[in-house]
Amino acid sequence: MSTHTLSTTRLDAVIAEGTDHGFTRIRLADGHALLVKARPGGRAADEVLLSPGLIAPDTEAWAEEDSWEEWLTGGDLGAETGTFLDVPTEALRDLIAEHGGEHEDQEGEDPAPSAGGTAAGEAAQELGAELAELHGAFEHGYGADDIRRVFGRINDEGGPYLVCVWDIADDYGFGGNADFYAEDEECKLFELKPDVYRWLTGQQDSPGPLDTWVGAHVPELVEFAATDDRHNYARTER
Length: 238
Fold this sequence. Notes:
Blueprint: H1 9-17, E1 24-27, E2 33-37, E3 44-50, E4 65-66, H2 69-73, E5 82-88, H3 89-98, H4 119-130, H5 144-156, E6 161-170, E7 173-183, E8 189-192, H6 194-200, E9 214-217, E10 226-227, E11 232-237
Parallel strand pairs: 6-11
Antiparallel strand pairs: 1-2, 2-3, 3-5, 4-5, 6-7, 7-8, 8-9, 10-11
C-alpha cells in the first residue's frame, strides 16, 4: 500500500512525458538524488539509478538490480547505490516521500545529503572537479585524436573507459555520425548519460558525479569493422 503524501510534480512529468532514451534527474529535499529513465505513460520506470547514500527499500518493487558499479569505480560501492530495473511509479513516489519530497530547485547542483554520503560518492564529486577543464572540449567539434586525448584523460583520472562509435573508418581515419558509450573490461558497451556529451560540447556546466554517467548494457553493440584500440570504433570500413 502506498504511503506517499507529498507532491511529486517532477516525477509525474517524467513518467507522463518519458525521458527520450536518457536519464532525468530528480533532486530530493534532503539532498539525495535519483536518475530515472522511462517511456511516456508507463506504469514503471525502465531504470532508476540511486545516488550514493540513497538506499533502495527492501521490497519486491526494488528487487531487480542491474549492478555496474564495481567495474566503473574499481571497487564495490555496496548496497547504497545501484541501477534498478522496472521500478513501479508508486514505489518511486514512496521513496521520494520518505526523503521529504522533491527539492524546490530541480535545476540546481546536488547539495550534500543531510545524512552524509558514502566515501565513494565524495570521491566522485572531487574527481569531477579535477576534470573540470574538459568542459567544452568538443565545443568546436572533435575527431579521433580528440577522442583519444579527452577519453584517455577521463580514464587516467579514474573515470569509466569511454569509446566513440563512428559510422565509418577509411584511409583518412574515422568519420560520419558518432555515438559515445562506456566499455567494461569484457568489452561490453553501456549507455552514457547525455549530460556527459552536453558537458563536453559546452552545452551545460557539469556532467554530474562519475557514478551517474553509465546506464544500461547495450547488447546489440558487440562487433565493429575497425578500431584503433584507443577509444575509437567504426561500424563499417571502406
